[in-house]
Amino acid sequence: MRYLVVNADDFGFTRDVNSGIVRAHREGILTSTTLMANGGAFDDALRLAAETPTLDIGVHLQMVQGESLSEPGRMLPASVGALIGDLVAGRWDVLKELEAQVEKILAAGIKPTHLDTHKHTHLLPSVLEAVATISEKYSIRWVRKPFDLPLDGSRASWKTRAASFAMSQLRGHFDKVLSRHGALSTNHFAGFLWTGNFSAQDLVQLVTSLPAGTTEFMCHPGILGEELRLAPTRLKESRELELRALIDPSVRQAIVDSQIKLVGYNDLPR
Q1: Which end of the chain is least crowded, N or C, by CB within 10 Å?
Q2: How many domains does the chain have?
Q3: If you average pLDDT over every residue of the chain, what do you get?
Q4: What is the pLDDT of residue 158?
Q5: What confidence tier does 171 reach under pLDDT thresholds 50, 70, 90?
Q6: DSSP the chain
Q7: What pTM value is reported for the model?
Q8: What range does the domain containing 83 cover?
């Protein structure tokens, strides 16, 4: 069998991002999303989640961008580089911060099925250890393993291609830490090289060549409204392009023709 999870990051970021995610689920192939506990549209995301019970929800843990929940009034580092500097200097209790984010989502009545991190910061050793600890403590067993399948990365910037290669070198340590804590990951992952730059045709090609086992495809759909225009993110117009690809009928037909089981994390075989 081939199982495919299509997960949207950034649920709770802005209301127009939330709307795009829900539309991609209701009209397209999106099966799950990860919720930002400190997102500006967190309450709107909760409302939409209650109206959309088929949408599988996890936690989009943040150690960069936004306000801290463990230390209200303090801002998280603005970038991965700034985070690394803070971690080296011992300026953050990562486990305390990420636990506060999970606790907020649990208190809101959400039962998360999976974990990932904003900007893939769980590739950093101390963040990975905290995420794996949370996975074990709260029995949120699925954790994203963000190492791309071999995809056509020709449209990605050289920085993105270099980052993808550097990330792949961490796979061995990553697997050991997750295994020690009993965490699970899909067999395969795709989407990093294509962030903000894929079409329906790309998705059809991915689906038809999907390897055996379980795969997560990461995406960032949204609707370009005023909130998103003003938001601190490079992904703006591209979110609408991703949304169009995710709801294109040709992609769903390719999934049917390829006999792929489209699921959320809550339906993945262990």
Answers
A1: C
A2: 1
A3: 94
A4: 67
A5: confident
A6: -EEEEEEEEEETS-HHHHHHHHHHHHHSS--EEEE-TT-TTHHHHHHHHHH-TTSEEEEEE-SSSSB-SSSTTPBPPSSHHHHHHHHHTT---HHHHHHHHHHHHHHTT----EEEEGGGGGGSHHHHHHHHHHHHHTT--EE----B-S---TTS-HHHHHHHHHHHTTHHHHHHHHHHTT-B--SEEE-TTTTT---HHHHHHHHHTPPSEEEEEEE------HHHHHSS-S-SHHHHHHHHHHT-HHHHHHHHHTT-EE--GGG---
A7: 0.94
A8: 2-267
